[in-house]
Design goal:
Number of strands: 7
Strand order of the largest sheet: 2-1-3-4
Largest sheet: 4 strands, parallel
Strand content: 5-15%
Radius of gyration: 23 Å
Helix content: 40-55%
Mean pLDDT: 91
Number of domains: 2
Order of helices and strands: HHHHHHHHHHEHEHEHHEHEHHHEHEH
Distance between the termini: 81 Å
């Protein structure tokens, strides 16, 4: 094959930013010796096994419908952050090596040789995509940039360029069962402290069981729920609901994590491994239900991938639900006792997390994924308002820190990516007096606590949905 001239790149508005890459034995953070051959073979494997990917790569007509839909492009104006341009970083290589036109007339079809320079762009721009899928909502052909991003990251992994943050998390899960590497004794100590805090606050002895084989319900939570605000307040809210309803529930030291970071790099094998670990733990405990807590990508994996990995849900032996579905079922059966007056001084809005809003199912009907969280907030408080219609539900803006981007070296990217959502939030603060924004994703909550101060907004205005519901739960006094 002859050489292909390099593509023309418009000047960038700001310097490119990319994450740190691993430099541990054999995975050098640089390229393996036969990187080009390996990368092309990996792309060929993806194209052959993933029919949707081939359709996405073949069907784009450059109509521009996605151009201004990416929050990173809106935030920094970098032309390679337009979804179509980000897709073309792989599409050009696909055309060069896997289409007849690209092999014989490469310049006429935008075909690109896979060079180190191009791979450098992959390592930058596939980590300036949070895989939120907002662009796919507006694409007339339904092209899913998230799928293309995951393929790009998977190929980078295969040739030795492995993102440090994501792989550190995956290593922790493999080692001890949660993202942050918390050992069982630390989890037990944390839960004991939460019991003391809730008892002091409410006078009620609310329990946080761990590894309870008599439980009916296993709750999977993001690691942050065990130690950080506002996440821990959401876990407390769940515990209050379980206590009020007399539900036997438990957390687990072996499967203490809801998250599945393998989704971010399209690693099916690791996704399956983590899913089977949850299944085995649930079977060992003998629970009847597995509830996935407030973690967006965990619920996307659970609702969209678990059935394919292990059959009906995790197995036919127990039911899998999102915690919002579980709480909403109590609400619609008039079992949930709430005192809305505790939130009289709040005006609350809701941030639809991308992986829930555009990649998951919840409830009985398609739009329940939007309706159920809002119904819970409206049941718990009198003052709920939505942001502008073109920024919520399937149109929601990403928080800017999802998809494996929640790492300090990408703070510049995270802030620019958050700006469209923050702009919508500022509108309802100014016009409707919003004081708090609820979310059901641990990454969203962590991201907003980091970036809101950079927009002169209070980090404490971001709250867990189950914190709002939990604070309104009526608990009976105990001695």
């Amino acid at each position: 094959m002859g050489s292909v001239s390099t593509r023309k790149i418009k000047p960038r508005k700001s310097p490119s930013v990319k994450p740190n890459f691993c430099s541990d034995g054999g995975q050098s953070g640089g390229l393996v010796e036969n990187w080009q051959e390996l990368a092309i073979a990996k792309l060929g494997e993806e194209v052959r096994s993933n029919r949707a990917l081939r359709v996405f790569l073949d069907s784009c007509v450059k109509c521009g419908a996605c151009t201004d839909k990416c929050h990173y492009f809106l935030g920094d104006g970098d032309p390679l952050n337009m979804p179509v341009a980000r897709q073309d970083l792989i599409r050009g290589v696909y055309r060069r090596y896997f289409t007849a036109a690209g092999k014989f007339f490469p310049k006429f079809v935008g075909a690109l040789d896979l060079t180190e320079s191009l791979l450098e762009d992959w390592s930058t721009y596939y980590y300036q995509c949070s895989e939120c899928r907002r662009c796919s909502v507006y694409c007339p052909f339904g092209i899913d940039t998230a799928e293309i991003t995951m393929v790009g990251r998977s190929i980078l992994d295969a040739v030795g360029i492995r993102q440090n943050y994501i792989h550190t998390v995956l290593d922790n899960v493999n080692r001890v069962g949660n993202n942050l590497g918390m050992i069982g004794a630390a989890i037990a100590d944390t839960l004991e402290g939460l019991e003391e805090d809730v008892l002091e606050e409410t006078g009620v002895n609310v329990k946080f069981p761990l590894d309870d084989t008599d439980a009916d319900v296993l709750l999977l939570v993001p690691s942050a729920d065990l130690f950080a605000e506002p996440h821990v307040d959401g876990l407390i809210g769940c515990a209050k609901i379980f206590h009020q309803q007399g539900i036997r529930w438990t957390l687990s030291t072996e499967a203490s994590e809801a998250a599945n970071f393998a989704l971010f790099i399209g690693d099916d094998e690791k996704m399956q491994q983590m899913t089977r670990h949850v299944r085995d733990t649930a079977l060992k405990l003998g629970v009847k239900q597995v509830l996935v807590g407030e973690c967006g990508h965990a619920w996307r994996v659970a609702s969209s991938y678990w059935p394919d990995i292990t059959g009906n849900g995790l197995t036919a032996d127990f039911e899998t639900l999102h915690i919002c579905e579980f709480t909403y079922d109590l609400l619609r059966k008039n079992r949930l006792q709430l005192d809305r007056s505790v939130h009289n001084n709040k005006v609350i809005t809701f941030h639809d997390s991308c992986n829930v809003a555009r990649g998951s199912r919840m409830g009985e009907y398609p739009r329940d994924v939007y309706r159920i969280p809002r119904a819970l907030l409206q049941a718990a408080c009198d003052n709920f308002v939505d942001m502008a219609p073109d920024t919520i539900c399937e149109h929601t803006f990403c928080c800017g820190g999802g998809g494996g981007l929640l790492t300090d070296e990408l703070m510049e990217v995270r802030v620019s990516g958050a700006s469209p959502r923050v702009s919508a939030l500022e509108d309802v603060i100014a016009n409707q007096g919003v004081t708090h924004m609820a979310a059901i994703c641990a990454i969203c909550k962590s991201q907003f606590r980091s970036v809101l101060p950079k927009f002169d907004l209070d980090m404490n205005m971001i709250v867990s949905l189950h914190q709002i519901v939990g604070d309104a739960v009526v608990l009976n006094s105990e001695t």
